Amino acid sequence: MTYITKAGKEYICVMETHEKVDLPIVKKIAEEFKGTIYQRPPVRSSVKRRLRTRKVFDIEVLEGKDDKLFLLKISSEPGTYMRKICHDMGIILGTGAHMRELRRIRSGIFTENGLVTLQEVSEALYMWKNCKDETDLRKILLPMEIGLCGIPKIILDDNAVNAIAYGATANAPGIVAYQNFKKGDLVGLITLKGEGVAIGKALVDSNSVQQMKKGEVIKPNRILIKRDVYPRAWK
C-alpha cells in the first residue's frame, strides 16, 4: 500500500470564484498550472506548511456554470492539494476562489470502475463465513499482483525465488525476462506464474542486464511471498 499511495492521482473538483469570470479566462489561467508548481500546504493539513514543488500532469476545465462554478479535472503527483490550486487560481484571476467539492477518481492504476460499497463487502463476508459461498467475495477481492501493474517487472527463475524470499538480492543468472527500467527505479519481481515475489530498487538499468552473466540487479525493499513456497536452491 505504501507504493500504491505514492502513485499519481486524478481528481474532479468544483471551484467557485468569488466574482463572475468568463470561462475562456479560467481555461487560460488553468494552463499556467500545468507542469511543476510551487505550493504551500493549506493551514488545515497534516503536513508542515513549507513551500515545496509538485507536478501537475494535466488540468482541464470541463465546464462552467453561472460564471462562478467551474468543473476541473486534474491529474498530479501525490501530495498536491486541489483546494490550494483552486485558491491560487482565484488569486491570479483577481476574484478569489475556493474549492466547493472534490472527488478522487484515480490512484495509480486504480480507478472508480469496479468500486463496491462497505455494505457489499459486509454481505460478501457474511456469505463466505456463514454459507461457505465465496462467489461475491471473489468478485470484490483483487490479487495482490494487480498492484504491481504500475511499475516495471522482472520475471524470475523458480530456483531464484526462495533465496529472495529470505532477503537475497535478485542476480542476473536468476532473471528470465524483464521490462525496461532505469537504475534507481522501483521494480516488481514476479515468478513465471505471475506471483508477486518482492518489490525492490534497481541497482543497474535494464540495458546492462542483457550484458551481465552475474552480479546484483535488484535489491528487495519488501518481500511479498512466503518463505519455502518454492524449493531451496542454494547450498
Q: Can you tell me about this structure?
A:
- There is one protein chain.
- Helix content is 24%, strand content 34%.
- It is an alpha+beta fold and 235 residues long.
- It is globular.
- The chain has helices at residues 2-5, 23-31, 82-93, 118-131, 135-140, 158-165, 206-209; strands spanning 9-17, 35-39, 52-65, 69-76, 97-107, 110-111, 153-156, 170-171, 175-178, 186-190, 196-202, 216-223.
- It folds into 3 domains: 2-108, 2-Layer Sandwich (Pseudouridine synthase); 112-141, no CATH class; 146-223, PUA domain (Archaeosine Trna-guanine Transglycosylase, Chain: A, domain 4, Roll), CATH 2.30.130.
- The two termini are 34 Å apart.
- It contains 7 helices and 12 strands.
Q: What is the annotated CATH architecture of the largest domain? A: 2-Layer Sandwich
Q: How far apart are the first and last residues' alpha carbons, in Å?
A: 34 Å
| CATH superfamily annotation of the largest domain | Pseudouridine synthase
Compute the average pLDDT. Answer: 93
Radius of gyration, whole Å: 23 Å
Specify the number of helices.
Answer: 7
Q: In terms of per-residue confidence, which ranges show pLDDT below 50 for 5 or more consecutive residues?
A: none
Strand content: 25-35%
Q: Into how many domains do the coordinates divide?
A: 3
Please report the total strand number as a whole number: 12
CATH level 1 name of the largest domain: Alpha Beta
Shape: globular
**H/E element sequence:** HEHEEEHEEHHEHEEEEHE
CATH-derived topology of the largest domain: Pseudouridine synthase
Q: Assign a percent range to the helix content.
A: 10-25%
Q: For the report, how would you describe the main beta sheet?
A: 6 strands, antiparallel
Placed side by side, the strands forming the largest sheet appear as 2-3-4-1-5-6
Structure classification: alpha+beta
